Each structure stands twice: as structure tokens, then as C-alpha cells.
């Protein structure tokens, strides 16, 4: 009998259509894998079931009855437990408290029943005995745990709900092999007990090890459901890509680079937190793409190159000269620029005027002490115009701009004094299509002027359309380079997913 059925689920955020048509069915006693590329709509579909996202259309049927899931509490009341890709732990609380956080046992309605808390949490902790690692205990505060241990706590919290339907959105991304094997033993036991499990993963070996069926979502639509025993890795990847997969046309040739040519950036054997043994070079006038699944070390490498995170090994050279930034200020002085897609964290200064947001790098590179607003406005006008930035006056607060125009201001700040190397860390995240078009047109122009550009994008289409070469990352290392006729969507998916 089908436990859960989703028909025609649809969700849009403004002009962005996150889910066009989501169809999914989950049977009792099965592990049903949900797979698709970055941004395909997998997580949105699961969040609809979990009650954290309200669909614009479609229906959810549970045990044969249509249901309206008004929120996370309503979802839990219906017997649905979910592991979110973004961990939702309380750092200052203990492991035991976090495991039972959605349903803390109370005494007299006022105080936490510590005896019941310890007893219930101990059962979950015991499931992972021997693989949870040193320092993992019921009374350990979560902030003292490693990334894999925090992920185990989130898994335990989901299992502790004892829900008949469990949804796991990339639960193994930070786990080691022994932890994954133990987790799969638990899932197989729960399946044998008749529980129903939705499992999202980008690791093909895991999908074929644990799944009974697999459903593929592509570009916001459910496109295929297959029995795991009757399919294989190339077939699943082909469903993710679609029937028509051709070599993506190479980016338009950049104008001849004036002045000297050569290497803008070279990296040899770079290693640090989240990446290891990364080597590549970027020629002046070249756009080098970083591809692969989200969180495979791409952003960590870019931040290390900019001095925003340390690296433990390897060498870096800019324009042939050895370079290692201890902090972003040193990178800026050497002509290295970094644009983050997280403009709230790494970009804009909230509440301050556009002029102040567009000129701080100019101040640092030129060691300015005296402010002449008129001169600054003239210097800022060129980059802002080149990006087609829309604003009333440059003295308006940056918060008065749309997200796309805020990101254009962040990019413009690096162009007042041209850098040698431009590091783009998922720069189009959360901006509209026109803003993306304006940005990539300028990037190609900058490459033509001799900049060496490294572009990481979580959208595969952006990489294929704009990068001259693509390095595919997996587990912190480069596993394949795609260039020329190898630059197809299938090859990009195959390199990212099969290696995973």
C-alpha cells in the first residue's frame, strides 16, 4: 500500500520556479531514493511534506487521505520525521538535549525530566556506538563536536521521532565509511519493521546500496521512477540530463589580451580544511570553472586563495610571483579579488550608502585617508554603469536595492582598480535572470582585458555556458577536467555523481 503520495506539487519564489511538477509515491517498508542535480527541486519537494514550505499547487495524500500540512508541527503529528540538509542543532545544548529537542520530556509541565531524557537519548546514542568518535557523549555540548559528529546528532534526532515516515536529505555528506555503514544497517532494520524512508543522496554507490526505488527530478519536474534492481548508474544519469545532451557551445572568444600574456594564477598541491592536493593554473584571459556537487571543496579553495581561510600545504603564484595571503587585506594588495554569493555575510554593509559599499576596496588598495565624495563617485560610476546597476542616487542605502543590484554593487567594488585575478564564489546566487546576463557579459569582457577568472557556480548550466574549462570537484579534490568536446552536461554529471 502507498503510504505517501504527492501529485503535481508546485512552488515558486517570485520569478524563480523551484518546483514545476513534483510527483512522488512512497510505499510502506521501502527506501525510496530521490535524486537530481543542484537546484532540481528535491529539497523543495521534501520541505513541502515536512510542512516547512507551503506549495502553490498540488496535493499530498497520506494513507489514502488528502492532507493539508500547515507546518512542521502538523507534519510531525501526521507521523513524518525529517533530516534537513542544513543542520538545526542548538550549539550550547548537550547531545542528549538536541536528540530530544523537538519533544523534550517534561516533569510537571515546567521542568525537563532529566531521567527520561537520559534514557531516551541513550537508546539513540547506543545505535552508533563504536563509530561516533572520541568525545561523543550524552552530556557533550554540540559546539565541541566535529562536523561528522554533529551530523550524527541530527540523524539521531530524526530517528528519535519514531515516525512511520522518515525523510533524510543528504544525511551522509559529512560521515565516514564506518558511520555510513552503521546508518544503513539501521535503515534496513527500520525498513524491515515496515517504516517508509525517503533518501536523498548524491553518492551513486549509496543509492544503489540502500535504495529499493529511485525517482529522478530534473529542472523542477519528476521525470522517471525505476526499481533499483532494474537500472544502473549511466541510465540514472541520462535521466537527470535528458534525451538531448550536446556539447555546449564554447563561450564566445575573448578579444585579444593586450600587453603581456601568460599565467594569471597557478596553484600546486593546495591542501586545507575541506580540500586536498588541488592543482591548476589559469591563463590571463581565461575563465576556469569549478564544478561538482555543492560543498565538495570549491568554496573552501577560493576562500583559501583569498586569505579568508588558512591552507596547510601547497604553493600559489600570481602572475608568476609566489603568493600566500595570510588575510584578505594581503590578497587585495596583491590584486586578488573575491566575490561571494552570500552577500549578506561577505558582501554588503547593511544600512550604509551605496557609495560606501562600492569603494572600500579602492580605499584599501590606495591607502586613502581623506574622503573626497565627488572623486569617489566618478571612480564608482564606470563599474556601476558597466554592470547596468539600477539605483536612484549613490547616497541611497544599499538596502533600497534589489538583491541583483546589491550583488552588482559588490562586484563593482572590485573593478574600480582592476585586479589580476577574480575569484567568483557562486556569485549569481539569488539574483534574477537579467542580472545574471549582465554579470556574465561583463565577466567575458574582463577576461578579454586580461583578468584570470575562477568561477564556481552551483548551477551547471552557468558553468557550461561561461567557463572555458571545468574542473570537477569531489570530496575536496579535482577528479576530472572537462574541456572542448568533453564539456557536456552528461560528462559533468557523470564526473560529479559517479565519483561521489
Layout of SSEs?
Layout: E1 2-13, E2 16-27, E3 31-35, H1 42-50, E4 57-62, E5 65-67, H2 72-77, E6 80-83, H3 95-99, E7 106-107, E8 111-112, H4 114-127, H5 147-159, E9 165-169, H6 177-192, E10 196-200, H7 204-210, E11 213-218, E12 221-227, H8 233-241, E13 263-272, E14 275-283, E15 287-292, H9 298-305, E16 311-318, E17 321-322, H10 328-333, E18 336-340, H11 343-346, H12 354-358, H13 360-366, H14 373-386, H15 403-412, E19 421-425, H16 433-448, E20 452-456, H17 460-466, E21 469-474, E22 477-482, H18 489-499
Parallel strand pairs: 3-10, 3-11, 6-9, 9-10, 15-20, 15-21, 18-19, 19-20
Antiparallel strand pairs: 1-2, 1-4, 4-5, 7-8, 11-12, 13-14, 13-16, 16-17, 21-22
Plain-language structure description:
Belongs to the ABC transporter superfamily. Keywords: ATP-binding, Cell membrane, Membrane, Nucleotide-binding, Repeat, Sugar transport, Translocase, Transport. GO terms for molecular function: ATP binding. This is Sugar ABC transporter ATP-binding protein. The structure is a single chain. Helix content is 33%, strand content 26%. Helix 8 (233-241) crosses helix 18 and helix 14 crosses helix 15. It is globular. It is built from 18 helices and 22 strands. By secondary structure, the chain is an alpha/beta fold. The model is unreliable at 254-259 (pLDDT under 50). The strands form 5 sheets. A 6-stranded mixed beta sheet has the order 6-9-10-3-11-12, sandwiched between helices. Strands 18-19-20-15-21-22 form a 6-stranded mixed beta sheet, sandwiched between helices. It has helices at residues 42-50, 72-77, 95-99, 114-127, 147-159, 177-192, 204-210, 233-241, 298-305, 328-333, 343-346, 354-358, 360-366, 373-386, 403-412, 433-448, 460-466, 489-499, and strands at 2-13, 16-27, 31-35, 57-62, 65-67, 80-83, 106-107, 111-112, 165-169, 196-200, 213-218, 221-227, 263-272, 275-283, 287-292, 311-318, 321-322, 336-340, 421-425, 452-456, 469-474, 477-482.
